[in-house]
Amino acid sequence: MIGAETRLVAMIGFPIAQVKSPANFNRHFDTQNDDRAMIAMELTPEAVKDFIATARGWTNLDGFVVTIPHKGAVAELVDEMSPRARFLGAVNAVRRDPDGRLTGDMTDGTGFVEALKQRHFSVAGKSALVVGAGGAGSAISLALADEGLSHLVLRDLDGNRAGALAAKLRLAYGSCTVETGIPAEGAFDLVVNCSPMGMSPGDALPVSENLLDQMPAGSLAADVVTSPEITPFLEAARKRGLAIQTGAEMAAAQMIQLGQAMGIFSAENSNA
Amino acid sequence: MIGAETRLVAMIGFPIAQVKSPANFNRHFDTQNDDRAMIAMELTPEAVKDFIATARGWTNLDGFVVTIPHKGAVAELVDEMSPRARFLGAVNAVRRDPDGRLTGDMTDGTGFVEALKQRHFSVAGKSALVVGAGGAGSAISLALADEGLSHLVLRDLDGNRAGALAAKLRLAYGSCTVETGIPAEGAFDLVVNCSPMGMSPGDALPVSENLLDQMPAGSLAADVVTSPEITPFLEAARKRGLAIQTGAEMAAAQMIQLGQAMGIFSAENSNA
Questions:
Q1: Angle, helices A159-172/A135-146, rounded to nearest 10 degrees
Q2: Side by side, which strands form the sheet with B80-81?
């Protein structure tokens, strides 16, 4: 139970009631007998700048997680950023130093890769299709390239968005061919849905049935959507005997990295 | 345990680790199976203005309690104040309406009077000495005058502070004689320590032993200091067989009023 000496971390977003991190972190703090709590703060976009200023002078706050739609705004306001957060222009976790200095990181992509590693799925030398080049798609594409992916196809309804991300990735990772704007067909080792398709009943699949049929043995279909846990896309992949990875698995794998980015889990304590 | 749907209230102060309200409120929410939590936020004075701006856009926050040293600053920043908060120029509880509008109240004095009522000590027609004309002393003096006190003596090391408060009280309550700057001797029905004397070991008593000796049967010695719970002043009064009221009793009586001021306890639900 929260008292006056409880150290705090926060999660900011709008809306906020759907997020899983506060319950996950608070369960963890509880099992560790750690007098900490994560609070979920539903903040309007207009209040983000004031929140950042408040956080500088909020001395029992150690850091905060950032979710939609504030990731880009927070990147503009913190004092320092990790290279990956700078690359993406987005921040999903901030550490507050005792002097009020704020350092941002972006763990959406590395959390996804961490979940892959936990199932012993190696990305090096493989091909992937990423559907959706927004915040999650950008972060995951960067993390996949960073893990040695050979071939990446990006698909987004907004061709300019996919093109801009592809250009940045090509510049940074010469070893990975990046394509956009082509019919997304082929025998991909990994297909990741980073679009909202599948959140609402009746949504079309993010990829064609035909594409799923072409996925080779040992390939993986992954989704970042957390609700429903098994999206129609994952269900269709599972029916074909493909391995699947849910958004919830990604979120769970990401928790350690969020805690490290906020400075409340040490790097050694990685099974926190 | 806090989750993403938990409604929040906050308590702001600097420092904050010593306050009791978060533990008291959270125990209450827990026994009521109410998915609410109070968080204790240690905020520097420089961050108060930003916090107020943040609170307007913090949509799952219902209100907040304000403690030292922010009570005056918050009074300057809210949209509306109760008459007693306006009189005192200080706010210790703020309600946040769904549109972000902030309304301040000041329950330090009425909380004290509530504790008196719980022990069936009536103020009407009586005499009181209040030591310390700061935030707590001002609020308690106002509440005592409002309850029909006949005679009030105010004592403060800062004579101007006591004088200014006395002038305001005389203007508002013609029925109560208010004196300052005189030797505080006499047979008071109620003596209240609203100074910090008694918080540190070796502090002098806030009143003379001689004054305690003069207190009549049925009189009461009260302290707003919460730590130690039994101050040397209360101990000296108890040795003389006088009734005493602790700072903790005042704080407990005030909890309902804080919840009402934040709009999370209804007026009917007064034994919340």
A1: 20
A2: B36-42, B7-13, B61-66, B93-96, B102-105, B80-81
Q: Would you state the structure tokens that stand for residue A130, as one six-digit string?
A: 């990423």
Q: Is B168 a catalytic residue?
A: no
pLDDT digit string, tens, across residues B145-165? 999 999 999 999 998 999 999
Of A18, A21, A47, the CB nearest to B57: A47
pLDDT band at B227 (very low <50, low <70, confident <90, very high): confident
Q: Is the confidence metric ipTM above 0.85 for this complex?
A: yes
**DSSP class per residue in B25-52:** HHHHHHHTT--EEEEEEEB-GGGHHHHH
Residue spans of the domains in chain B: they are 7-106, 109-250
Q: B267: pLDDT confidence band, cut at 50, 70 and 90?
A: low
Burial class (CB in 10 A: 0-12, 13-18, 19+), A213: exposed
Q: Is residue A30 within 8 Å of residue B42, measured between CB atoms?
A: no
pLDDT, position A183: 64
CA-nearest of B248, B196, B197, B191 to B222 is B191
Interface touch A3/B18, C-beta < 8 Å: no
Given an 8 Å threshold on Cβ–Cβ distance, is A46 in contact with B40? no
**Which CATH architecture does the domain made up of B7-106 adopt?**
3-Layer(aba) Sandwich (3.40)
φ, ψ (nearest 5 deg) of residue A244:
-130, 155
Topology alike, domains B7-106 and B109-250: yes
Chain B partners of A26 at a C-beta cutoff of 8 Å?
A: 1-3
Residue B54 in 3-state DSSP? helix
Residue B29: which of B185, B232, B186, B262 has the closest Cα?
B262
Shortest CA gap A250–chain B (Å): 18
Suggest the residue from A50, A61, A102 to mutate for an interface test with chain B (most B CBs closer than 10 A). Answer: A50
Under an 8 A CB cutoff, do A54 and B59 touch? no
Min Cα–Cα distance to chain A from B24, Å: 9
> Under CATH, to which class is A109-250 assigned?
alpha beta
A22, A53, A57: residue with CB nearest B2 = A22
